[in-house]
Amino acid sequence: MEGKTHISVRDLSVFYGGARVLNNISINIPDKKLTAIIGPSGCGKTTLLKSFNRIIDLQDGVRVSGQVLVDGEDIYDPKVEVTHLRKKMGLLLQRPQILPMSIYENVVYGPRIHGVKDKKKLDGTVQCYLKVSGLWNEVKDRLHSPASRLSIGQQQRLCLARGLAVEPEVILGDEPTSALDPISAERIEQRFLELKSQYTVVLVTHNLRQAKRLADYVIFLYLGDLIEHGTADQVLKNPRYLKTESYINGEFIEEPEIHRELNLKGTACSDYFERAKHTLEKIAHSQVLKVVVEHEQNAHEFEKTMIHKGHRVLEVKRINKTDWEMLIQKQNNVYTI
Ligand SMILES: Nc1ncnc2c1ncn2[C@@H]1O[C@H](COP(=O)(O)OP(=O)(O)OP(=O)(O)O)[C@@H](O)[C@H]1O
Ligand SMILES: [Mg+2]
Q1: Please, is 25 exposed, middle or buried when counting C-beta atoms within 10 Å of its C-beta (0-12, 13-18, 19+)?
Q2: Do domains 5-248 and 260-329 have the same CATH topology?
Q3: pLDDT cut 70: percent of the chain above it
Q4: Based on C-alpha coordinates, what's the Rg of the chain?
Q5: From ligand 1's centre to the CA of 46, what distance in Å?
Q6: Core-most of 14, 46, 111, 300, by most CB within 10 Å?
Q7: pLDDT at 44 over 90
């Protein structure tokens, strides 16, 4: 990943009651870029996003393990001040959540809580952030009328202005355009395009075209697993792994049938290939070998070797703090085997 890391997720798992809904997620999210989280419904997108500002703590029966570092600070450390963290990490939800007050009061709500009293300053804040969110021209003559009279698309832009008025460093958006008509959605998208030069933006979206238009990086989640993470171009146009490819092509995602398993934990990395070769000899063309290895570095080295030998690597994923699981599909048209 190029550039500076802003949010670093290390071996993060989230449990609701007994059910684990995020499995050992590790990713670095770069500073001042837009990262889109994609994946089918229920795969954990909202959960991941909410773990970034600890809004997830507000739900009953949630347990989080692992770390989320923002600017190098572990936000799950008991010493962290959650209000400060949430100010830094603004969250925009799917449906606009306006406060039952005027347009003006919605925007200054955060700054007032943080102690700003000066009217001139507050007026300036309202004008500035309504402009940034693209709403100023539509509402400048009725700032003191109830926000509830705005259209849904205008309300969403107002929520964006309210979020920006507390001067966050990160903008988290959970499908912020999916409840909007196409024109309002485009207006919000336009704002995101402008904002990403100044803020780190993480956007959950169901809409692959939106991800293509906006994202610098893409994270693909499936059933709580991080399947793929890379530049938007790479993941959306040239996905590495089978599940990502199926999802991008709008196909049903299937678990590949596994024909053999090989545990290489405790084996020297230099012996991985010989062991795998031996097992691959026992299965037919296009059958699948599941391999467990220790450490990310080894997983990637092994993946490279398998690809180099002409086999297809269907999946590479972390299954716990140290172990990685890989699915290799045997190809017969290879030189060595
Ligand atoms: N409060 C909760 N209690 C129990 N299970 C939950 C809770 N919130 C979410 N889940 C479960 O966790 C899993 C992930 O949910 P999440 O909302 O993160 O998915 P999502 O990818 O955002 O889905 P969608 O695209 O439908 O919004 C789902 O199986 C969901 O049912
Ligand atoms: Mg969701």
Answers
A1: buried
A2: no
A3: 98
A4: 23
A5: 7
A6: 14
A7: yes
Atom of ligand 1 nearest to the CA of 16: 4
Q: What is the pLDDT of residue 116?
A: 93
Angle (CA) 222-227-232 rounded to 5° is: 105
Mean pLDDT for the chain overall: 94
CA 88 to chain centre: 17
- CA-CA-CA-CA dihedral for 230, 41, 213, 8, to nearest 10: -40
- Here the tokens at position 94 are 């799917």
Pocket lined around ligand 1, Cβ cut-off 6 Å:
16, 21, 39, 41-47, 59
Note whether 151 and 115 are within 8 A (CB): no
320 Cα–ligand 2 center, Å: 24
Query: Per residue in 271-324, pLDDT tens?
Result: 889 999 999 999 999 999 999 999 999 999 999 999 999 999 999 999 998 999
Residue 240 token pair: 């590495």
Helix 119-132 to helix 182-195 angle (10° resolution) is 110
What number is the average pLDDT over the span 42-64? 94
Identify the CA nearest to 218 among candidates 186, 190, 241.
Answer: 241
- Please answer whether residues 50 and 56 qualify as being in contact, where contact means their C-beta atoms are separated by less than 8 angstroms: yes
- For β-strands 217-222 and 200-204, DSSP reports them as unpaired
What's the CATH code, domain 260-329? Answer: 3.30.110.40
272-280 helix and 296-308 helix, angle to the nearest 10 degrees: 50
Domain boundaries, the chain: 5-248, 260-329
Q: How far does residue 166's CA lie from ligand 2's centre (Å)?
A: 24
Model-wide pTM > 0.85: yes
Let me know: does 305 contact 269? Beta carbons within 8 Å. no
The whole-angstrom separation of Cα 303 and Cα 73 is: 32
Q: For residue 58, what pLDDT is reported? A: 86
Among protein residues, the one with the nearest Cα to ligand 1's atom 30 is 42
Q: What is 5-248's CATH topology? A: Rossmann fold (3.40.50)
